[in-house]
Amino acid sequence: MSEDLFFLKRQKLIELLREEGINDERVLAAMGKVKRECFVDEPEKEYAYLNHPLSIGCNQTISQPYTVAFMTELLDVNPGNKVLEIGTGSGYQCAILKELGADVYSVERIEPLYLKAKENLETLDYKVNLKLGDGTLGWEENAPYDRIIVTAGSPRVPEPLFNQLAIEGIMVIPIGDTYSQDMYKIKKYLDSTGKIRKEIKTYKEFVFVPLIGKEGWDYDL
Ligand code: SAH
């Protein structure tokens, strides 16, 4: 499929996201720039601009574009923000965060995906800090983060991630059982007595692959 055709399909997808209620122009512009076809293998490329999840191997998927846009909108990224992503997958979400001007850190637990994401991002010249490991423990050395986005479904908020979130920081994370999850937007703030608090808003209803690790699901499904 030609570059031009992908470009046209990408513009159509952006119109669809608008119709579906995504209205942050920064997010729409970022989604209009990142070549989703470059984050999947050949048989999936022709479906890259359908509003569907896509297989990336190892039983994992990139979320459908609407979900990526919705989460990114909730995350409210500003240029220069330090952002931690858990669940690098293909690297697509990292590219969207880079287009928003973030300084991006991302952790993946499956080695072949980590390696592929590294290659995808390097090929497109996105400079991202990637780590292979259990992301439920966060990435302590570079904390605190202004924003944390978890792209796999968790039974709860992993405590190390909340600890590594900056005051006034925002975390977006799907929480539920292994069949479906609600999206949580969590703001960390200090109350008038100086105590750390969470302000939580939730949005129904999503389906993610499981977050597997010490502070997530503790088994392989
Ligand atoms: N954000 C990705 C899609 C993520 S799919 C993209 O844009 O392509 C969810 C990913 O989370 C999978 O790759 C899965 O292996 C990973 N994952 C699950 N549990 C994890 C953990 N504890 N730490 C890091 N990654 C994890």
How would you sum up this structure, described in words?
It is a single chain. With 221 residues, the chain is of the alpha/beta class. It has a domain at 67-206: Rossmann fold (3-Layer(aba) Sandwich), CATH 3.40.50. It is 30% helix and 28% strand. It has helices at residues 3-19, 25-33, 42-45, 65-75, 92-99, 111-123, 159-163, and strands at residues 54-57, 60-62, 82-86, 103-108, 129-132, 145-150, 165-176, 181-190, 196-206. A 7-stranded mixed β-sheet has the order 5-4-3-6-7-8-9. It has a two-stranded antiparallel sheet with strand order 1-2. Helix 1 packs antiparallel against helix 2. The longest helix is centred in the first third of the chain and has 17 residues, at 3-19. The termini are far apart. The model has no long low-confidence stretch (mean pLDDT 96). The site of S-adenosyl-L-homocysteine has 24 residues, from strand 2, helix 5 and strand 4.
**Small molecules (ligands, ions, cofactors) in the structure:** S-adenosyl-L-homocysteine
* Helix and strand pattern: HHHEEHEHEHEEHEEE
Going across the biggest sheet, name each strand in turn: 5-4-3-6-7-8-9
| Biggest sheet character | 7 strands, mixed
What is the typical, i.e. mean, pLDDT? 96
Assign an overall shape: globular
- Text of the CATH class of the domain at 67-206: Alpha Beta
Report the total helices: 7
State which percent range the strand residues make up. 25-35%
Helix percent band: 25-40%
Distance between the termini: 35 Å
| Beta-strand segment tally | 9
Look at the helices and sheets and give the structural class: alpha/beta
**Cα-atom Rg, whole angstroms?**
17 Å
Q: Might you state the CATH topology name of the domain at 67-206?
A: Rossmann fold
CATH superfamily caption of the domain at 67-206: Vaccinia Virus protein VP39
CATH architecture of the domain at 67-206: 3-Layer(aba) Sandwich
pLDDT < 50 runs, ≥5 residues: none
